[in-house]
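Why do we bother with a discrete structure alphabet at all? Because it lets us treat a fold like text: something you can write down, compare, and reason about line by line. To make this less abstract, here is a complete entry for RAN guanine nucleotide release factor. Read it the way you would read a sentence in a foreign language you are learning: slowly, and without expecting to understand everything at once.
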Amino acid sequence: MQTAGGGTRPLFGGSMSAVFPSNATDVSVFRDIPDNQEVFAHAHTDQSLIVELVEYQADVADPDAARFHLEDIAGSNGAVGASEVTGVLELPRAELSLVECSSAWKATGAQRVAKFNEETRNAVTVHLGVFRLPQFSTDVLITFNDPQSISPGSSSAALAEAHREPWTLQDFQRLLQTVTLNDPGLFG
């Protein structure tokens, strides 16, 4: 299925799928990616989109799940200081293709992170979608990393100068709305 500006891509061997921007490059072509992740990068902006399957956090209430996972991502990224969460919003299930989720949430946060263990840090807005699937003991996370400023000492500095056709929040929203489970066997 093709849509304006992008097309449906298989995820996790076709067990899931979603509509991505047409210029999303599969990072697994260049480096190893954990089996529970699908990672895509923009060739010119240092933006990335990550689909990740993580353990369902039964002790975290649905309205708190996005904040919980966003703060966990900040810790994994080695974000300097506290990650600032600037908003959490419930996604209307009627607008989602992932009908198996019990609820879905979107959060936005700000982080200062380094790439590849560099010393310089970039300011990144992180948009996170969380789909709760307790019946599969899984939370599906979809992360849109959107750099706001790239440090001149970062390996990404050269890319930042060629800021062409960046992904938008509409691209991220379309991804959230179109993620689909094609094979529940993915969860064991």
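What the structure line is telling us, in plain words: Residues 152-157 have pLDDT under 50 and may be disordered. The longest helix spans residues 62-76.
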